[in-house]
Design brief:
The chain folds into two domains: about 140 residues, 3-Layer(aba) Sandwich (D-Maltodextrin-Binding Protein, domain 2); about 110 residues, D-Maltodextrin-Binding Protein, domain 2, CATH 3.40.190. Helices cover about 45% and strands about 20% of the residues. The protein has eleven helices and ten strands. The strands form two sheets. The protein has a five-stranded mixed β-sheet with strand order 2-1-3-10-4. The longest helix has 22 residues. The radius of gyration is 23 Å and the shape is elongated.
Amino acid sequence: MPRWVRKLVIVLAVLALSCGASAAAPSRITVFAAASLQESLDDVVQAWRLRSGQPVVVSYAASSALARQIEQGAPADVFISADGDWMDYLEQRELLAASTRFDLVGNRLVLVAPSGSAQGPLSPRATAQLLAALGDHGRLAVAQTTSVPAGRYARAVLQATGGWDRLQSRLAQGESVRAALAFVARGEAPLGIVYATDARAEPKVRVVATFDAADHPAIVYPAAGLRAAPAGRSEGFLAFLRSDQARAIFGRYGFTTP
């Protein structure tokens, strides 16, 4: 066989193997997820990559911002919201893949102070205590109370405990719960209302009160595939999110079973 023919055969064989490997490689998926999931979901994604070989890219932000991006056509395969309202928002617009929605994890709402402050435990139902702890000029850090899930939960708990009217003018509202957490961690706010998992993830804050779950709507994170994504591409990942392995990872970060 002439040398040039042998070289051509080798090249064609390499190309065939390369194409076969590419065809077999799982397609990358993009996940839009609530900011409060970052550390835990990063670990879940890593576990899924090791198991499946499928690349996963996660974009973290406030659920409200992500839902609006999806509505405007942002390319994503999976959405995980910090509340049911923004998932409902997409479902009502027929943007979710049929029969893929499920409740992933739950959470708790807590009051935090900078870890180096002298602030002692507070009663979450004692508005006068909260105002005294804020001092003359301090603000209570929360996420946006009209749109971001954590902010909505914060507003609900302040309304339920009778503190909303006196505290709403003292709020420092961030674009996400992690922004509110950062206000407290940097000492820019003496107190903040965040998720229990956020407090656990940030060593520069500590919990000074835990709100009664009966004083706000249940904190549940639903997940779903998106209708615009190629059929089947995220099916395995969504199934893995419901696995015992994934739930154990979320549990290590303080999330609860919904």
